[in-house]
Amino acid sequence: MKQTLEKRIILFSLVILTLTILLNTGMDIIVFRRDFAQEMLLRSQSLGIALKGTIEKVLALGLDIRDMSGLSEKCRELAQSDPEVEYCVITNTDGKPLFSNDPFFSSTSFSQSLFVPSKDEPDRKQLSREIQTSKGIYHNTSIPIRSFDTKAVAYINIGFPQSEIDKKVSTIIVRSFIVLCVSFMASFGLVVFFVKRSIVSPISTLLDGLTKISQGDFNIRIPDFPMHELNELGVNINYMSNALEHRDNELRKNYEELETTHTQLHESYIRLEHLSLDLEKSEELYKRMLEDAGDAIFVLDGNRTVIIANKMAEDFLGYPASQIVGQHISSLLLLLKAGNILQLLKTFQTSVSGTYIIDEITITNGNGRSLIGKIHASSITSGETNLLQVIIRDITKERETLLNLEQSTAGLSRLNKMKDSFLGLASHEIKTPLTVIMGYAELLLTDMKGQLNETTVEMVQNIASAATRLDNIVKDMIDVSMIDQKQLELKLEAIDINSVIEASLREMRFFFALRKQKVQTQLYPTIPAIKGDPIRLMQLMSNVIGNAIKFTPDGGTITITTAVIQNTRPPQTSIDSVWSYNECKKSDCYVEIIIHDNGIGIDPEDQTRIFEKFYEAGNIEEHSSGKVAFKSRGAGLGLSIAKGVVEMHGGEIWVVSPGYNPEKFPGSSFYIRFPIQSIAEENVTSSANPSFYTELNLNKNNHN
């Protein structure tokens, strides 16, 4: 069938191509013959009309055409001007030749002419016909020559042979035959190629695929074809193959599942028997767990009647289960003398809708004890029945413990107030005898020094030093007491914080030299003024810098930086973000002071407690004595006073440290911030009230 289809398609294509090309060539030859003959006639007419015009001009002078000379030469010139024109003959009205370019045509009669209307001169007549001579057939064109009175007196006959047309047509036939052969071969080759490639080959592939599918090979895949219809047929065959393969697999799978299902049904029946036994055991276990639960558990039905109560419910309520089960919840609450019964009933009603409720209940149980319980109520489902589960936990002891803690907290608060009062009272009471001791010691060391021996002078000096240290501690205790009681008064003025830092560094210059430590400063040059108390700010800086000196080893470095920043945490440094004074008028800006050391560091749990009164970080036994000795121990009031001074100025202070390590010295950074917005609003500059700095003889140089 494949060969028959191919041969039929090729034969049909051959016949169609042959007929089409032959008909097209025949039509072209006929049209060319007609057009060429018409062209020759038109050319003859054009030549005759030109000669006619010349002759009619002479006739208009009154001459007779027979008397005109040179017309034979004119005819020869006309015939020679067009190689395809065979003759030019001027005849009279009877068709007898008068003048001719060739003597052969002088004896030819042109009397049987057929006149047809002229397209160029519709008011005249022209003659067109075929003339049979001994030389052959000629196509003749007759053009009338008219006298001045428009009467035809002669005819110009111009003719060309039929052989010229036949010659041209023969040439066209030969050329058309060559083109026909070439076109036929190319077209037939293309048709054969197209048939084999686009029709026969795809059909053969489709037939082979269908044969394999019919034999049970569902993995066959038809490739894509360039023709849409055949490609769609291939896609559908692939789809059919996939569907058949899927159905075959499903049938096999269903058969296997059928066998498996039969086995599973047998196994399920056996498991069902085991599950029935396990269910009975689980029910027994649930009942046992319900009975042994540490909380009182009730289960209410849809009518709010108690249907289950565990053993703990009997102990909590003080009634046996026989008196609890079967009672309505409202009757049970009345029996227990519960407080706020209406609220509890509303709570239970809300729980039935699926909301998990936590509430409290106060009861007097059957043993006469007042108990407090925390209720956990939730809705549960048993088949199509909605039940309410109520769990009550006894929190009586927890409430008693909480009450005791509150009382203890109140007692500690009173003790703290008594401690603050004691500190204030003790500091003031110690101040008076301490002043007397310091006065007499100074008197002995000045006015009566000559009356004392060297040993006594040394003893008095030790007394004076100890009294001075005790005086500083008393002053710190007084400051702490005044800060706690918010009685510390500040004398506020515009302060240049850079000048305060430089003054503090000069005062502590001796301690830096004693410990061989270096000080580096990075002070922002155009820092705006803040409103503060210069004395207290000096005390603040001395306490924080002194703390850095104590916990930095000999030869260490302390860096002090100032900047203008926004109030953001974690802290920024002057390198992170520097703000101008004009920006601070529009933003919530702060003056930031960073005091960084490369000392032993502070543990994270101590970083918030070091600002508490009398708190010493680290192991106290490792601390040494002395004001600025390495790891020296003080009264634990310096940083507490610093925090109080900062907060009284509306600022904040905190410390950042990687941790405590006396071997690697991770260091610590104390951050102090003061608001400057109010100063910016009052247009206070850093040059305001310079008297304080003049008294301290400050300069603007950094200390190293």
From TrEMBL:
Residues 241-292 form a coiled coil. InterPro entries: BphY/WalK/GraS-like (IPR050351), HAMP_dom (IPR003660), HATPase_C_sf (IPR036890), HATPase_dom (IPR003594), His_kinase_dom (IPR005467), HisK_dim/P_dom (IPR003661), HisK_dim/P_sf (IPR036097), PAS (IPR000014). It catalyses: ATP + protein L-histidine = ADP + protein N-phospho-L-histidine. Residues 197-249 form the HAMP domain. It holds the Pfam family HAMP. Keywords: ATP-binding, Cell membrane, Coiled coil, Kinase, Membrane, Nucleotide-binding, Phosphoprotein, Transferase, Transmembrane, Transmembrane helix, Two-component regulatory system. PROSITE patterns: HAMP, HIS_KIN, PAS. Its EC number is 2.7.13.3. It is an enzyme of class 2 (transferase). The chain crosses the membrane at residues 12-32, 172-195. Residues 425-678 form the Histidine kinase domain. The keyword Cytoplasm does not apply. It is a multi-pass membrane protein. It is found in: Cell membrane. Residues 282-355 form the PAS domain. This is histidine kinase. It comes from Pelotalea chapellei.
